[in-house]
Write a structure and sequence with these properties.
Layout lengths: L4 E2 L4 E6 L5 E7 L9 H11 L16 E3 L3 E2 L9 E2 L4 E6 L21 H8 L15 H14 L5 E9 L2 E2 L20 H16 L6 E8 L13 H10 L4 E6 L10 H4 L3 E3 L5 E3 L7 E2 L2 E2 L4 E7 L9 E4 L5 E4 L13 H24 L6
Antiparallel strand pairs: 1-2, 2-3, 3-7, 4-7, 5-6, 8-9, 8-10, 10-16, 11-16, 12-13, 14-15, 17-18
Function: This reaction introduces a second double bond into the aromatic ring system.
Keywords: Amino-acid biosynthesis, Aromatic amino acid biosynthesis, FAD, Flavoprotein, FMN, Lyase, NADP, Plasmid
EC number: 4.2.3.5
Length: 369
């Protein structure tokens, strides 16, 4: 299987399967001299790990990370662990896999999963939780994102939230970033979060699942990141988000809603601002124009499909092309979009770290005249 690496200067390669011994990543291109401890990475992984509420899979994984390489501490660093500029390898052990839950679907393709596609391509598939197609792979991305945050300037703030579950969107007039950490849905609207509890309980008890929309925002992004043609910031961001398991659609700024606007409505008008930079009066573009950041908040949303593993019987076929009605047992998220929130932040951080290093490599640190 190829294409397990993303990024150009800040490069991340993930490895491992859902029910394998471990999973992890290798981060290449991280500059030297950056302070990083396992606890910094663990804090992000703890936000994504399963089993933290009844609204996510009950698989109990501590997701404890180990740094295997790429850091060093001695008297010359004051005992502080710093990156050396060499590849940083991170490992997360699997400790609570129950492969027997999947024995009944060994010879059947789960509808909505990658089972058939993997088998058609490789002639072999890991049916235990989906192997590489499992959302568990995203733990490695979150670990890499924790390092990417350290590469970026400290004034770049990356936050994400669940803004829609099924057809039920949040009320943006009640948006509160602090609320995201107070409920199990990463929801910025306290009232809607309370509604989601009863709503998702009903779906879970029905043995079904539901989709969601995640919004990720990066503030403090300087203007100039990205390249005009084949290295567009928004194109790389869209590709990164689309690569997350179960994501089926991505938009930047107003996205598809911009198709309903007139030109005068969609234009992000400007007026003179401080330090020679303009002040934008709107941000329909989501912080990117011509593939290059404008200095406005970078805004991206993506849609996550319902978890395909459900207890409701679904029609499928076996590997021998015989019809079968299939029920997927095991421990699954009734809304996998919930735990996609920290993954979204991680992918935003990785893309921005890559473009930050690319930008520095091309134009240096020259000041705007």
């Amino acid at each position: 299987m190829s294409h397990n690496t993303f990024g150009h200067l800040f490069r991340v390669t993930t490895f491992g399967e859902s029910h394998g011994v471990a999973l992890g990543c290798v981060v290449d291109g991280c500059p030297p001299g950056i302070a990083i401890e396992a606890a910094d990475i663990q804090a992000e992984l703890d936000r994504r790990k399963p089993g933290q509420s009844r609204f996510t899979t009950q698989r109990r994984e501590p997701d404890q990370v180990r740094i295997l390489s790429g850091v060093f501490a001695d008297d010359r660093t004051g005992g502080v662990q710093l990156t050396t500029g060499t590849p940083i390898a991170l490992e997360i052990e699997n400790t609570d896999q129950r492969s027997k839950d999947y024995s009944e679907i060994r010879d059947s393709y789960r509808p909505g999963h990658a089972d058939y596609a993997y088998d058609a391509k490789y002639g072999i598939r890991d049916y235990r939780g989906g192997g590489r197609s499992s959302a568990r792979e995203t733990a490695a991305r979150v670990a890499a994102g924790a390092i990417a945050r350290r590469v970026l300037p400290a004034d770049i703030v990356i936050r994400a939230a669940l803004v829609q579950m099924g057809p039920h969107a949040v009320d943006r007039s009640r948006w509160d970033w602090d609320e995201v950490a107070r409920n199990p849905f990463f929801c910025p609207d306290a009232e809607t979060a309370k509604f989601y509890e009863e709503y998702l309980d009903g779906i879970r008890k029905d043995g079904s699942s539901i989709g969601a929309v995640i919004e990720v925002v990066a503030e403090g992004v300087p203007p100039g990141l990205g390249a005009p043609i084949y290295g567009k910031l928004d194109a790389d961001l869209a590709a990164a988000m689309m690569s997350i398991n179960a994501v089926k659609g991505v938009e930047i700024g107003d996205g598809f809603a911009s198709a309903a606007l007139r030109g005068e409505e969609n234009a992000d008008e400007m007026r003179s601002g401080n330090a020679g930079a303009p002040t934008f009066l709107a941000n329909h573009a989501g912080g990117v124009l011509g593939g290059i950041s404008t200095g406005q908040p970078l805004i991206c949303r993506f849609a996550v499909k319902p978890t395909s593993s459900i207890l409701t019987p679904r029609m499928s076929v076996t590997t021998n092309n015989r019809d079968v009605d299939l029920v997927t047992k095991g421990r699954h998220d009734p809304c996998v979009g919930i735990r996609a929130v920290p993954v979204a932040e991680a992918m935003m951080a990785c893309v921005l770290a890559d473009h930050y290093l690319r930008h520095r490599g091309q134009v240096g640190t020259r000041d705007r005249e």
